[in-house]
């Protein structure tokens, strides 16, 4: 039963590991999960609504603002039958801020947890994504519910991508004290 | 007079109560006030500017971005003669991020205090509102002036609503150290 | 060579000073630099993409959302030959939130450092600008890379302006612990 204190079996290791950082005497939390961001296809989760061409603007062009409602999962594969996989949603916006490369995006979103003991708690994210760079980093600028006073960082890598759809991997570390 | 300790004459005691949280040895501030958000009527304070139909988009639809300049008051009723009621303004944006229910909104705004000792100071808010849920929570992600280094949370309930106009009640707790 | 480790001569003192704040036992960092925000001209760096007239909206009108990619420099003058001057970019958005004066803007942006030891690190900024006021203040709500866990404030003054182009001066103070 021990591991069940946090989550049943599989989830424990996947989602949340708590450890103590000796230096600052502050406890940190670490999470690992995946976001599915689809700009195309029947499972579209990200939609441009403003830019130089309004809601028909290209997300790859400077100035385009995209609204997202992306699944957050424990494992990168999303299948409708694997209902245990869903952890929550990433809801917010990203804005293309690079007129030269078109590859930088200001990210502003809420991660809303929907499972078990963290149901309803959130993390607030702000940062800049440089698409194509092997590793990116955003800031955790706040949190709610069980994550009140949160601040930290998200190390982001790309687990997989296909055209304009991508599955970034989030390695999140934050403190709440 | 007992309750007058909390809500006396005017703003000073009404607005801010400071208490010490023993556990962390950190002092916290707590505030209670009301926002008036009117999407319709002659006192309109919230206007869509982007979405799938540009500035004529429906705030209740996924993708719509609304710009707000809402009054922040000590008491829920706004009357022009009750000038003592005004505490400041909430200025920023909310974005509809739920394609299924249309009830989730990413909130990004500044609370600009305009009265007495806190005049000119701000709190920075980021979070997700789920309209219709009895209690919601946003994060205080920063502050300026007398609220430098602020971080905390806003517990939000609906004091009253009429059509697309609403008066949410903010119970704000934050630390500045 | 000594000072060259950080920056040539002037830059060392200009950009980063670390000092210890006795009261809280926390170390603070302080930076001083300049942003070049051009809404007009051949070196345009700020572009409206939404508002009541879409991407042709006036930045001086309530509701207009502007996307920026502004140079951050050690000295206020930008010249192409002075390559040592560039420190990074400010990438994000500002939104006109004042229907009466048209002078308030919600600022949401990332400062991306591009030089030397801070290359790739960021600060996350959120706050309200009141254009024309001698001194304004935004919040540092987070950071990444060498500025993980950052929170603090930006004191902003206007170094120079010409029509709709301006060079604000940022005096940034933040803690990372």
UniProtKB/TrEMBL annotation, chains A, B, C:
Compartment list: Secreted, Extracellular space, Apoplast
Domain of life, per lineage: Eukaryota
Keyword Ligase: no
UniProt keyword terms in alphabetical order: Apoplast, Secreted, Signal
The keyword Ligase appears for this protein: no
InterPro entries: Allene_oxi_cyc_Dirigent (IPR044859), Dirigent (IPR004265)
Signal peptide, first to last residue: 1-25
Record's GO cellular component terms: apoplast
Gene3D superfamilies linked to this entry: Allene oxide cyclase-like
Alphabetical GO biological process terms: phenylpropanoid biosynthetic process
Oligomeric and partner information: Homodimer.
Function field: Dirigent proteins impart stereoselectivity on the phenoxy radical-coupling reaction, yielding optically active lignans from two molecules of coniferyl alcohol in the biosynthesis of lignans, flavonolignans, and alkaloids and thus plays a central role in plant secondary metabolism.
Family in the record: Belongs to the plant dirigent protein family.
Listed name of the protein: Dirigent protein
């Amino acid at each position: 039963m021990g591991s069940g204190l946090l989550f049943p079996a599989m989830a424990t290791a996947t989602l949340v590991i708590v450890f103590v950082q000796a230096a600052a005497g502050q406890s940190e939390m670490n999470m690992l999960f995946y976001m599915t961001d689809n700009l195309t296809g029947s499972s579209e989760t990200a939609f441009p609504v403003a830019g130089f061409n309004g809601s028909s603007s290209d997300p790859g062009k400077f100035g385009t603002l995209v609204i997202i409602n992306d699944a957050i999962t424990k494992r990168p594969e999303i299948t409708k039958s694997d209902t245990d996989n869903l952890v929550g949603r990433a809801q917010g916006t990203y804005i293309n801020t690079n007129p030269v490369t078109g590859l930088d995006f200001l990210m502003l979103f809420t991660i809303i947890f929907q499972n078990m003991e963290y149901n309803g708690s959130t993390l607030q994210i702000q940062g800049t994504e440089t698409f194509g760079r092997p590793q990116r980093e955003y800031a955790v600028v706040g949190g709610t519910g069980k994550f009140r006073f949160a601040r930290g960082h998200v190390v982001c890598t790309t687990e997989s991508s296909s055209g304009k759809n991508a599955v970034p991997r989030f390695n999140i570390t934050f403190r709440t004290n």
